[in-house]
Amino acid sequence: MEPESSPTPEPGSRGRIVMLVDNGVNGDSRVQKQARSAAEAGWEVILLGKAPGKSPQRWRISDAEVRLLKVPGPMQRRRHEYRGARLRAPLAYHPGPLAASRKQQMKAWRADLYIRAAEAAAEGSAASRAKLLPERLSAKVLNRWVRLRLRQTQALEQRRKRMDAPLDRFTTAFWLRLMGKRAWRRLDPYLLDLDLAYGKVISELEPDLIHANDFRMLGVGARAKLRARAAHRDVKLVWDAHEFLPGIKPWDPHPRWHVAQCLHELAYSRYADAVTTVSATLAELLAERHGLAETPTVVLNAPEAEVSPEHAAEPVPDLRELCGIGADVPLSVYSGAAAPQRGLDVMVESLPQLPGLHVAFVVLRPKSPYMAELAGRARELGVADRVHILPYVPHYQVVPFLAAADFGVIPIHHWPNHEIALITKFFEYAHARLPLVVSDVRTMGEMAAATGQGEVFTADDVEDYVRAAKAVLAQPEKYRAVYDEPGLLGQWTWEAQAATLDAVYARLLPGAVRSYAGRTPEVTV
Fold first, then answer.
1. R_g of the chain computed on alpha carbons
2. How confident is the model at residue 276 (pLDDT cuts 50, 70, 90)?
3. Which comes out higher in pLDDT, residue 303 or 39?
C-alpha cells in the first residue's frame, strides 16, 4: 500500500489537485487520462473514486495516486422501505430478513419431510409413512400461504422502487414546495452518503484545486470547497460536466432520483470557479441552464496519440482472432456502454440482410442481461455464429484493438443527451481510421456528414442501417481517406485536450503557471 499523502503538496509540484469521480476509475478513460496528463504537467494529483466492494483500494496511474474509497450507503434505501404496509399490502412480510427466512424455512421443512418419508420407506413401516401424511399436507398448505405472502412482498417492493403511486407523487411535490432546491436531501439522501465518504478525505488532503467529474461529484466538491472556506483556505473548484443532466435517461427507476440530481446540480453549480465539458453544444446548454458567467471550456474525450513506453510494450489483443475470423471477413464493431437506448439491436437485426458480415460488441459487462438478450435474438435469427461479445481492453489499447475492424458503429437512439454529445468512441473509431456508421443524432451525425468519414442512418431503422453498412463496405478507402486531411486527427487527441485543461488549472492558480509539460499538439481546440 502506498504511504499516505501529506497535507503539504510535494516539493516542486505546481500544487495539489484532488480529482473526484463516482465510479471505480477502471473503465473510465476520461478520468484516467486527466489524472495522468495533470501529473505529467507537474501537478500533484490524487484521484478519489468509489471502491466496488467493501475494501478501499489504492494504486497509481503514472505519477498520479488513485484511491478508491469505501462508500457506505445506508441512506440509499429510503425510510419508507423499512416500514410495513398493513393497509396497502396486508399480506406482505415486514421489510427485512423475515421473508427470506420464511422461504428458507419452508424449503428446509419440505426437504426434511422428504428424507423422513424415504427413511420410513427404507424401514418398510407403513405406520411411519401414514404418520407423516398430516404433516406433509400441512407443509403443502403452509407453503402456498408463504408463497402468496412472498408475491405480495415482492409486489410491494417493486411499487416502492417505482414510487409512482398517488401518495408518492404527493410527497415528492410536498418536499419540492417546502424545500425548493434543497429538496434533493429528502428525495435522494444517498448524495449525502457520498459527501460523508469523500468529504473527510478531501479535507485531510487540503487540495489547492478540486476537479469534480459529473453531477454527483459536483456537490461533493462544492461542499468540500465550502468547508475549506470556513477554515480560511481558498480552494478552486472545476466542474467537469460529462452530460446534460435534464436530458439523460435515468438509470434509477424511481422518479424522485432524476428530480433530486437536477436540484442538486442546480444548487451547487454556482460554486464552480470553472466549468469544462465534452462538446460545444453541451457547453452552450450548460451556460444557459446554470447562468454561467462564461461558456464552459470544451475538453473532448479524445484518445491519446501516444502511449507510455510501458503500455506500448504490452501486446494488443487481436480483435479478429478473438472473433475467430480471418482478415478477409467483413467485421463491424461497437465499443462502449451497452444498454437498449444505445441501439445495439439494429446491428443484430440487420445481419440476415448483410450476409457474411460479423459483429463485435466490445462492452464492459459481456454477460449482462442486455447482452444475453442480444445473443438470444441472434440465435433466433440464425446468425449467432456471426455475433461476438467481448470484454473491454485497457483504454490505451482501444485504438489499435479496434483498427482490425472494417467499420465502427454508433447506433444510439434519439435522447436529448445523445443529440449533443461527441462521445469517446467517435474519436476512438477515427484514430483507428475506421469508416463510421452513425445514427442521425444531431452533433455526431452532422460531424460525420461534414467530414465525410462515414454514413448517417435513421436511428432504429434496420433498412436504413443496412444501406449505410453496404455503402461503407463497398468503398472503405473513400471514408478512410478523410483521416489523411492535415490537422483533423491532430485536434482529436488527448494531448491537445490536456493542454486546454492545463490552461484552465493555470488560470485558477496563477502562481503555478508554467508551460505544459506534455507534447505540444499540432492543433488545439
1. 28
2. very high
3. 39
Name the burial class of residue 253, with classes exposed (0-12), middle (13-18) and buried (19+) by CB atoms within 10 angstroms of its CB: exposed
By the 8 A CB rule, do 407 and 332 touch? yes
Per the structure block, which three cell numbers stand in for 492?
482529436
Q: Please determine, for residue 171, whether its predicted confidence score (pLDDT) is greater than 90.
A: no
Contact indicator for 338, 364 with CB cutoff of 8 Å:
yes
For 144, other C-beta atoms within 10 Å of its C-beta total 11
Phi, psi of 81 (to 5 degrees): -75, -10
Cα end-to-end distance, the chain, whole Å: 39
Write the DSSP symbol of residue 82: G
243, 353, 382, 416, 458 from 349: Cα distances, Å: 29, 8, 11, 25, 15
Judge whether 250 and 177 are in contact, CB under 8 Å. Answer: no
Q: Look at 246 and 67; give whichever has higher pLDDT.
A: 67
What is the strand order of the sheet 44-50 is part of? 57-61, 64-69, 44-50, 16-20, 209-213, 236-241, 274-277, 297-298
Query: What is the per-residue pLDDT for 362?
Result: 97
Report the SS3 class of residue 209: strand
Question: Could you give the CA distance from residue 483 to residue 329 in angstroms, rounded to a whole number?
Answer: 23
State how far the Cα of 408 lies from the Cα of 3, in Å rounded to an integer. 43
pTM of the model: 0.76
CB 274 within 8 A of CB 396: no
Q: Which residues contact 480 (CB under 8 A, 6 or more apart)?
A: 433, 434, 435
- Tell me the average pLDDT across 483-490: 92
List phi, psi (to 5°) of 66: -115, 130
Segment of 105-109, 155-159, 237-241 carrying the highest mean pLDDT:
237-241
Cα dist from 126 to 116, 134, 411, 514, 516, whole Å? 13, 14, 68, 94, 90
140's CB contacts (< 8 A; 6+ apart) are: none
**How many Å apart are CA 518 and CA 10, to the nearest integer?**
20
Cell of 464: 436504413
The rounded distance, in Å, linking the Cα atoms of 324 and 388 is: 9
Look at residue 10 in the predicted model and tell me its pLDDT. 67
Answer positive or negative: Cα dihedral of 226, 231, 232, 237.
negative
Cα angle for residues 43, 208, 37 (degrees, 5° grid): 25
Reported confidence tier of residue 360, pLDDT bands at 50, 70, 90 = very high
Q: What is the pLDDT of residues 423-469, one digit of tens each?
A: 889 999 999 999 999 999 999 999 999 999 999 999 999 999 999 99
